[in-house]
Request: fold
Amino acid sequence: MSTVDQLLRDGARRLGGLGGSPRLDAELLLGHALGQRREELYQSLFSGVPPEAEERYASLLAERETRRPVAQLVGRRDFWSFTLEVTNATLVPRPETEQLVERALARIPVDASWTVADLGTGTGAIALAVARERPACKVLATDLSKPALAVARRNAKALGLRNVSFRQGDWFAPLPKPDSAGWRFHMILSNPPYIAADEWSLTDPELAFEPRVALDGGRDGLTAYRLITEGAPRHLRPGGWLLLEHGFRQAEDVRGLLRQAGFGSVATTADLAGRPRVSEGQIGAPPE
Reply:
């Protein structure tokens, strides 16, 4: 009977050619096969692994070798201060998206009762983080994909959040009409698709397992940004904010689209790797 330690070493060796963090991947996959947390593995490093769990682990390793994301294989991913359910109907939440959450929280006063929209919510990562950190706010999350919204709703329920709701539809279509009862948002957030047509051959092979509709940004990667920046002013209160995550080569273009749509106070923030990642603008602010 193989031990936990042996299987972890073997797994890390098998996954070493994929790059990234092979040891961490092996830990997550073996923990999933055993129904244990990573820290529990290290409390039983030299314990034997039941044959059926070892077989499940071997199957997971084989799947991982095809470049299927670990988060899909184990069905979850840590984001912000919580864990999210992940399926092949959603993008895998990424650490750089936490920068968008940080910028949103920097703008929203701690006790504010703002209305916030998250367009293209996927797992709900952005909307749920904001709703959790700003409980007086009302957050509306939208997505074109019904299966993705089902995942987001389950994540909201698991976190016990009551100040977030979900609607299905494309970008602004599910939002309340701006002229109905004065409905306008204090802030709109989005991490839209931004991979350009000529960039697919350069992307991480793992993206092939994620929904293309959530990744394909059109010919130049900016299709969704044009739609969002053009439509946002009608749905924002005077002084409201639009915050967008984007590819690190797109900051200048996104800032240009924000200014073209009438936003002022336009700025870009880098992620932890120092790459331009989030651009924002305020409607009704003086132009630069």
